[in-house]
Amino acid sequence: MFSLTDHQVKICSFNPRAEKHGEDNVLAGDLKLEATCHSSVLDHFDKTWRKFLYRKPAPGEQTEIEFKAEDGLTQRRMPNLAPFKLDEDFPGYHVSIVSGLAIEETLLLNDVELSNFVFEALDGGSVQITFRASFRPDGRTSGKLCQLIQETVELTLTPPEREAEQKGMAA
User: Fold this and answer.
1) What ranges in 58-159 are assigned the alpha helix state H?
2) CA 65, CA 111: separation in Å to the nearest integer?
3) What distance in Å separates the CA atoms of residue 46 and residue 86, rounded to the nearest whole number?
4) Are 132 and 32 in contact (CB under 8 A)?
5) C-alpha angle 56/62/64, rounded to 5°?
6) Rounded CA gap, 61 and 36, in Å?
7) Cβ distance 141 to 112 under 8 Å?
8) 149 Cβ contact partners less than 8 Å away, ≥ 6 residues apart
């Protein structure tokens, strides 16, 4: 499953909204996040995507960005390919956000659903991933997230199965 640990991510937007739970309105929110990662992260979604999007450089071809890819897949196979979307939701994530701003604490979000993934192959063997994180924040967390819009933060995404493994080790 897709995961990130202390990865630099841009918070593109935060959209607070209300959800109906029976007759009650409950605060909910969506974060739009953007991360640039090594293309090997694509293996978390589908093992064939990386070989589809990237190739080894031809003799004499130079890469501007030097990623140390074990298999040498650093050149975009189809430079004119538009970003592509994944129509799948991933519920049950735990998210940790740390910023360098005045907010000196770690924001912890539980029961987060990741969705709306968009992948764009970049030169040098990296991929830009844009996705949405949907959750139910409290008012205090919403205010802090509003302060982080358009900022780069350190993000940790813990998938549901890894969270269960960590709890099992602690017991």
Assistant:
1) 139-147
2) 36
3) 11
4) yes
5) 105
6) 23
7) no
8) 11, 12, 13, 14
- Token pair 């031809």 in the structure block, residue: 58
d(CA 125, CA 122) in angstroms, rounded, equals 6
Which residue segment(s) compose the domain that 84 sits in? 4-170
Structural domains in the chain (count): 1
Q: Return the CA Rg of the chain.
A: 18
Model pTM score? 0.85
Cβ-defined contacts of 49-54 (< 8 Å, 24+): 49/119, 52/77, 53/77, 53/78, 53/81, 53/121, 53/127, 54/121, 54/125
- The answer to whether 50 and 148 are in contact (CB under 8 A) is no
Q: Are 39 and 125 in contact (CB under 8 A)?
A: yes
Report residue 168's pLDDT band, with 50, 70 and 90 as the boundaries: low
- Give the model confidence (pLDDT) of 70-86 as tens digits: 678 889 999 999 999 99
Please state, in angstroms and rounded to a whole number, the distance separating the CA atoms of residues 131 and 161.
Answer: 20
CA 106 to chain centre: 17
